[in-house]
Amino acid sequence: MTDRTSSTTRRTAPRALRLRDFPGVGAISVVALIFLYVPIIITTIYAFNAGDSALVWKGFSLRWFGEVAQNANLMKSVWVSLQIAIVATVVATVFSILFALSVERLRAKGSAIATAILTAPLVIPEIVLAVATLGFIRLIGLPPGMTALMLAHASFCIPFALMPIRARLKGLGSSYFEAATDLGASNWQMFRRVTLPLLVPGIISGAILAFVISLDDFIISNFLSASGATPLPVFLFSLIRRGASPAVNVVATLLLVLAIVVTTITFLQSQRRSTKHA
Amino acid sequence: MTLQTTERPADPAPNQDPAPARARRTRTPRRPGQLGWLASTPAIIIGLLFTVGPLIIIIIFSFLSRPPQGGGVVYEFTLEPYIGFLFQSDFVGNTTFDPRYLSVFGDSLWQAFVTTAVCLLLSFPLALWMATRSAKLQNFLVLIVTIPFWTNLLVRTYAWMLILNDNGIVNNASEALGFGKAELLYTPFASQLGLIYTFLPFMVLPIYASLAGFDFRLAEAAYDLGARKRTVIRRIILPIATPGIISGVLLVFMPAFGSYVQPVLLGGGKVLLIGNLIASQFGDARNWPFGAALSVIILVMLLIALMAIAFYSRKSGRKVEISL
C-alpha cells in the first residue's frame, strides 16, 4: 500500500531499498485520509434520504433539498449571512491590498507589530475573541446586529485575505515594477495598470477565502447576532441542537459543496501562479 | 496552494536586518509599484478596533465587579473574578478552596493535550507521506486535506452526531454483529473524537509545508553513510519538520483548549470545558467579570506559548511562522 506511487522512474526495488518510503507511514496516512472523509461522505449520502428520519434510509430522493429551499427562516438566515460575507469580503480584501502594498513603508518594528495585530485572530481562541468583542461593542454603544457582525467579520477575515495577496506580491519580484518605472509610468498608472492586474490571482484567492471564513463563522456570529440578524451557522446550530434531521443533512451537504468548490478554485489559482512565476 | 506558499518567509525578519542602526530608523525607500505607508492604516485601524480593542476591554473587565443583576460590569476594581477561580466564599465570609473550576481547567488541558498528541501522531506520517509523493500527487493530496479544513465547523461536528448516534452507523453495525449498542454520542469520548477530527488538518498542513521542499538527497546521503530508515527520520526529517510541528501544535492546542462547539454538540451536558464556561458566563450565568478573567487566563497561556516559540526560534535560528 505504501509503495504504489513511489516507484516513479526507478526500477522496482525491494521495499527496504525504496528511499522515499518509511515503514508504517503509508498505512497511517491512508487511515488518516479515511478518517477525514468518512464522516463527510456519510452526511452527504443521508442528505438524499427520502425518509423523515435523518438516519433511517428510505431510498434516494431530492425531497429534502426542496424542503430546505422552502424553509423561510433558513433562507432568511442565508440572506443575512450573504450580506455580512459580501461586506466583510469587500472590506477585508480592499484593506488587505492596501496593507500588503504599503506595509514595507512602515518602520521595521511598526510593520512587524501591524502584521501581528492583523494576524492575531488566527491564534486567539475564537471564544475569547467572541466574548471580548461582545464586551467591546456594548462598551462603545454599538448594539449586536448587522453592523457589529459586518465589522467583526471584516476584522477576522483580513488575515485570510492578506495571506494569498502577500504571497503573490512576494512571488512577483521587482522586475515588472522596475520595467514600468523605466518606461515612465506614474505612481497611479503603475498601481492601476501593473500592480493591480498582476495581483489579481492573489486577490481572487484572498477574497474567496475571506468570503468562506465569514460564511462559516459560528462562534463570533453567535455572540454578535440579534433577532432579525441570525446568520446561517447560528440558525444551523439551533437546528442541530434539536437533533439530527434530514434538513440539517442537506444544509451540511450544501456547505460541503461550497467548501469543495472554493478550495478547488483557490487551488487552481495558485497552480496557475506557480507555473507562470516559478 | 496558498496555504503552503505563505509558510515560506521570502525575506528575513526585519529585526535581523544587518543594516546599520541609523538606516533602520528611517523608513525603507518606496519600492516601485507600492503605496505610501498611509495605505496600511485602514487595515490597522480595523484591527485595532476589533481585535486589540476587545482584548484590552476583556482584560479591564476581568478586574471589575459584576452588577447586582443582569450582565455587564460595574466600574469598581476587584480581584474577585480571579479569586473566584480558586476559592469559594460562603455567607459568613469564609473562603475555602474550591477545585470545581480548576477541574474544568484541568479537563480542558487534558482534552487539548490528547487532541494535540493524536493529531500529531496521525499528521506527521501523513505529512511525510504527502511530501515524498510525486509533485502531481502532492498537489492533489494537499487539496484533499484542505477540503475538510474549509468545511464548516458545525458540519464537521454534526457528521459525528450522525455516526455516533444510537441509531448511527457504528451502533447499527455493532448490533448486527451481536455486540449490542453502546452509548457513544454525548460522552467525553465523542467530544474528544470531534476535537481530533476538527483539528487534524490544522496539524497536517503546517508540517507538510515544512517538509514540502525537502531535499531527498540528504536522506540518500544518510543511507549511503549507513543510516537506517528510523535514523533518517529521527536525525534528518524530524529536525526539518520541527518548525511546522511547533506551528501545528499551537494551532491545534489553543483552539482545542478553548473549544465550544464540540463539547456542546458531541459531549451533551456531560462535558464542561473552559470555552463553554466562558460562554455561559456571558450568557445564562451573567457573570461577565468572571468570564473575562477566564478569557485572560487563556490569553496568558497563549502569550507564554508564543514567547516560548519566539525563544526557540531565536535560539535555533529557524523561523516558525504561525500561519495557515
From TrEMBL, chain A:
Domain named ABC transmembrane type-1: residues: 78-266
InterPro entries: Bact_Polyamine_Transport (IPR051789), MetI-like (IPR000515), MetI-like_sf (IPR035906)
The keyword Membrane belongs to this UniProt entry's keyword annotation: yes
Primary location recorded for the protein, binned into one broad class: membrane
Chain segments annotated as transmembrane: 21-48, 78-101, 113-140, 146-165, 194-213, 219-240, 247-268
Keyword terms of this UniProt record: Cell inner membrane, Cell membrane, Membrane, Transmembrane, Transmembrane helix, Transport
Keyword Transmembrane helix appears in the UniProt entry: yes
Membrane topology of this protein: Multi-pass membrane protein
Compartments reported by the entry: Cell inner membrane; Cell membrane
Pfam families (UniProt xref): BPD_transp_1
Family (UniProt): Belongs to the binding-protein-dependent transport system permease family. CysTW subfamily.
Function, in words: Required for the activity of the bacterial periplasmic transport system of putrescine and spermidine.
Protein name: Spermidine/putrescine transport system permease protein PotC
Automatic annotation (TrEMBL), chain B:
Subcellular location: Cell membrane
Region (Disordered): 1-34
Pfam entry (one): BPD_transp_1
InterPro entries: MetI-like (IPR000515), MetI-like_sf (IPR035906)
Membrane topology according to the record: Multi-pass membrane protein
Positions of transmembrane segments: 35-64, 109-128, 140-163, 194-216, 236-257, 290-312
Domain of life: Bacteria
Keywords from the UniProt entry: Cell membrane, Membrane, Transmembrane, Transmembrane helix, Transport
PANTHER family hit by this protein: INNER MEMBRANE ABC TRANSPORTER PERMEASE PROTEIN YDCU-RELATED, INNER MEMBRANE ABC TRANSPORTER PERMEASE PROTEIN YDCU-RELATED-RELATED
Record protein name field: ABC transporter permease
